[in-house]
Amino acid sequence: MPSSFWDWSLRAYSRPGASESLLKLQDEFGLNVNILLWCCWCAQAGAAIPELGLRKAQDLVASWSHEVTEPLRAARRALKAPPKQADAAGAEALRASVKRVELDAEKLEQAMLENLARDLTKNSEAPDAASVARRSLARYADISGAARKKGFSTLLLDDLVRVVIPDALMEALSR
User: Fold this and answer.
1) The pLDDT of residue 27
2) Once rounded to an integer, what is the mean pLDDT over residues 7-33?
3) Please, what is the Cα angle at 71 between 105 and 66, to 5 degrees?
4) Is 16 among the domain residues?
5) Potential cystine with 146: which of 64, 77, 78, 141 (Cβ 3.0-4.6 Å)?
6) Cα(126)–Cα(114) distance, integer angstroms
7) Contact (Cβ atoms closer than 8 angstroms) between residue 99 and residue 131
8) Which range of residues forms the domain containing residue 140?
9) Residue 2 carries which DSSP code?
């Protein structure tokens, strides 16, 4: 990956029409702006993201977005029109502070996605037993309905593969 995801995203987001398109997909269709940008960043670097990678990305950012980024965004938006009894200058100063913290949360989320992209790229160069197992487990979780149950995460499958297929076994299987 040539440049950091964050730096690339700042440039991409500032392009004419980019923010409008991204925010429409976020606000009207529930898509995550960082995952949308991540897909484009990976594609520009020549890395196609497999379905399992997309599922991992969703799992990775879901709780972070729900518990951290979305509440900060809601607070920032609410401060655009504070109650008339609130000091307008104080509310605007607070809004600016919340916006900085929201951007910090977005930057951390993007760092998580960048690390995932590096892991996916590393794994995609030469499919090994762990990669094959992950795909099979993901398909199984999907067809069995487990993937749709509350609390399920493809990251759980990664943990299983790390435990069940140690490095020595993976080397033997890849021959």
Assistant:
1) 85
2) 87
3) 75
4) no
5) 141
6) 20
7) no
8) 127-175
9) -
